[in-house]
């Protein structure tokens, strides 16, 4: 007996995709954005949408389901983790005292990802709020070569790091989602 879910996708045009191109909200058709800053924001937006797409249609238990022991990683844990790191990136921008952690001690974002709808709702709300706040803080620094915060990090480096973080975790989300219900695709 095998407890692995059957692999599936809603895509019919390209069955290895998550959805058909006409149904993909990431709008990859047409010319890309103009300029480095717009390109970076576009990639970040695409990965943020991908993470949300990987979580769509799942209940609290499925979102909180751990991958394989001893890992504490889950889709809900990833959402919480990315809310936490958005806040942390904002700390890199400022010269003042750092904002407190959202979920407490290191790895509490993953350990606290429990199968409770209130926690799911709070995690997505936290993520949206922290993304908006970090976006607004970075909008005050349109020069990508400007160095900000106590560590004098370049805005460009911060933007690329954000994209890398989301891209890496979207890869995790691919595997986590397939483990939960068998759905596959980009």
Automatic annotation (TrEMBL):
Residues 1-39 are annotated as: Disordered. Pfam families: MST. This is DinB family protein.
């Amino acid at each position: 007996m095998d407890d692995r879910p059957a692999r599936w996708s809603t895509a019919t045009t390209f069955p290895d995709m998550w959805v058909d191109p006409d149904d993909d909200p990431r709008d990859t058709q047409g010319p890309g954005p103009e300029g480095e800053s717009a390109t970076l924001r576009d990639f970040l937006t695409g990965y943020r949408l991908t993470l949300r797409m990987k979580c769509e249609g799942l209940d609290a238990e499925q979102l909180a389901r751990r991958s394989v022991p001893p890992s504490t990683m889950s889709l809900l844990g990833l959402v919480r983790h990315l809310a936490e790191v958005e806040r942390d990136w904002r700390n890199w921008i400022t010269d003042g005292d750092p904002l407190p952690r959202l979920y407490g001690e290191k790895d509490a974002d993953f350990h606290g990802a429990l199968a409770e709808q209130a926690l799911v709702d709070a995690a997505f709300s936290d993520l949206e709020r922290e993304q908006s706040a970090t976006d607004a803080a970075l909008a005050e620094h349109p020069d990508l070569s400007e160095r900000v915060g106590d560590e004098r990090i370049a805005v460009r480096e911060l933007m690329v790091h954000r994209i890398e973080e989301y891209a890496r975790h979207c890869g995790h989300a691919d595997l986590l989602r397939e483990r939960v219900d068998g759905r596959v695709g980009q």
